[in-house]
Design a protein that fits this description.
Blueprint: H1 18-23, E1 34-41, E2 47-49, E3 57-60, H2 61-74, E4 78-83, H3 103-114, E5 119-124, E6 138-139, E7 142-143, H4 146-162, E8 166-169, H5 176-186, E9 193-200, H6 207-213, H7 234-245, E10 250-254, H8 260-270, E11 274-278, H9 280-291, H10 297-310, E12 315-318, H11 321-328
Parallel strand pairs: 1-3, 1-4, 1-12, 4-5, 5-8, 8-9, 9-10, 10-11, 11-12
Antiparallel strand pairs: 2-3, 6-7
Bound molecules: ligand PBG.
The site of ligand PBG has 12 residues, from helix 6.
Length: 330
C-alpha cells in the first residue's frame, strides 16, 4: 500500500496516457453491469413522456418489447418493469397486483416470447395498485405488515408464473423475503431469483418515479414507518442479514449515490451480489443540469455509474442504461 518517497515515487507516472490509466484501473464498468427500469402502460404503439423524467417514456407493451430488443442489442442483460396503473384499476386491497393479466405480467410474457435471453425483474410491492399509494395495505392510517405479506405472496406467484426471472421485493415489510421464498419453493418456482430491496431508505429522490407510475397523487403522508431512516447504516446491515437468512439471492441499496457508504459496507460485510438503484430523482438531477449545460451529461452518467462499481456494487439499476451502454460501446 506504500509508495517510495518523492521523487522516487511519482503517482503521476501511472496517469500519463490513456492506455496506462486503463492498465491500472481498479474498476470496470460495462453494459453487462446494468439493469434498465422501464415504465409500461396500456395501449398500442404508445410512448408517453414523463414530465419529471425527461427522456423517459411510458411504453405500451409492444413498445416495451422493442425496448427489450434494444437492450439485447446493446448487451444490457436485464429490464425492470414498472406499471403505470389507471385509477380505475386501483383499490384499497390492491387486487390488481395479483391479477395474472395485469400490465407487468402481460409485458413479461410478451418480452419473454420475443427476446427470451433478456432478463426480467419485477417489483413486489403494492404501491402501483393501491389507492392509498402505500407499499402495504392501510387500515385506519396504519400500514399493516402481516396482512400485506399475504398479498405480496400472491403477487410474487403471478409474476413468477408470467416468466419473471428476478423478483424485487421493494416494500420493506418485515418477513417478506421468507414468505415469498417459501411460496416460490412450494409452487415449483425454485429457480426464480430474489433481489431484495434490503436497504431502501425513505427518500425524497423517488418523487419522479411516483409521477411515472401514477402513485404520487394517491400517497398520504410518507413511507417512514417502513422505509429506512437516512441516518442509519448499521441497520442496513441488519436488514441485509435478515433478507439473506430468509432466502434472498442478491441485495439492493436504494437510492444510490447518497448511499455509497452503505453499498461499500454491505459488500464488505457479506460479499454477496450487491446492486444499487440510481433512482428517478438522481436521474432527474443529472438530466436537468445537463440540459442546462451546467454539467456534461455523458460524463456525469459514466462517472456516477463507475462510482457504484468502485463502492462494491456488482450492478446498477439506471434509467440511463441504454445511453450508458451506447457510450461504453463507443
Ligand atoms: C415502489 C418503488 C419505488 C421505487 C421503486 N419501487 C418508489 C417508492 O418506494 O416510493 C423508486 C424508484 C425510483 O425512484 O426510480 N415500491
Amino acid at each position: 500500500m506504500s509508495l517510495a518517497p518523492f521523487p522516487l515515487g511519482r503517482p503521476r507516472r501511472l496517469r500519463r496516457t490513456p492506455w496506462i490509466r486503463d492498465l491500472v484501473a481498479e474498476t470496470r464498468l460495462g453494459p453487462a453491469d446494468l439493469i434498465w427500469p422501464i415504465f409500461v402502460r396500456e395501449g398500442v404503439d404508445v410512448a408517453e413522456p414523463v414530465a419529471s423524467l425527461p427522456g423517459v417514456e411510458r411504453l405500451s407493451v409492444d413498445r416495451a418489447v422493442r425496448a427489450a430488443e434494444e437492450a439485447a442489442g446493446l448487451g444490457v442483460p436485464c429490464l425492470a418493469l414498472f406499471p403505470y396503473t389507471e385509477a380505475a384499476d386501483k383499490n384499497p386491497e390492491a387486487t390488481e397486483a395479483w391479477n395474472p393479466e395485469n400490465l407487468v405480467c402481460r409485458a413479461t410474457r410478451a418480452i419473454k416470447a420475443a427476446v427470451p435471453e433478456v432478463g426480467i425483474l419485477l417489483d413486489v410491492a403494492l404501491d402501483p395498485y393501491n389507492s392509498d399509494g402505500h407499499d402495504g395495505l392501510v387500515r385506519d392510517g396504519l400500514v399493516l405488515n402481516d396482512e400485506t405479506l399475504a398479498a405480496l405472496e400472491k403477487m410474487a406467484l403471478v409474476q413468477a408464473e408470467a416468466g419473471c426471472d428476478i423478483l424485487g421485493p421493494s416494500d420493506m415489510m418485515d418477513g417478506r423475503i421468507g414468505v415469498i421464498r417459501r411460496a416460490l419453493e412450494a409452487k415449483g418456482f425454485s429457480d426464480t431469483a430474489i433481489m431484495s430491496y434490503s436497504a431502501k431508505y425513505a427518500s425524497c429522490f423517488y418523487g419522479p418515479f411516483r409521477d411515472a407510475v401514477g402513485s404520487a397523487g394517491a400517497l398520504q403522508g410518507d413511507k417512514k414507518t417502513y422505509q429506512m431512516d437516512a441516518a442509519n447504516s448499521d441497520e442496513a446491515l441488519r436488514e441485509v442479514a435478515a433478507d439473506l437468512a430468509e432466502g434472498a439471492d442478491m441485495v439492493m441499496v436504494k437510492p444510490g449515490l447518497p448511499y455509497l457508504d452503505v453499498c461499500a459496507r454491505v459488500k464488505g460485510e457479506f460479499g454477496v451480489p450487491v446492486f444499487a438503484y440510481q433512482v428517478s430523482g438522481e436521474y432527474a438531477m443529472i438530466e436537468a443540469a445537463a440540459r442546462n449545460d451546467w454539467i456534461d451529461g455523458d460524463r456525469a452518467i459514466l462517472e456516477t455509474l463507475l462510482a457504484f462499481r468502485r463502492a462494491g456494487c456488482d450492478g446498477i439499476l439506471t434509467y440511463f442504461a441504454p445511453r450508458a451502454a451506447r457510450l461504453l460501446r463507443g
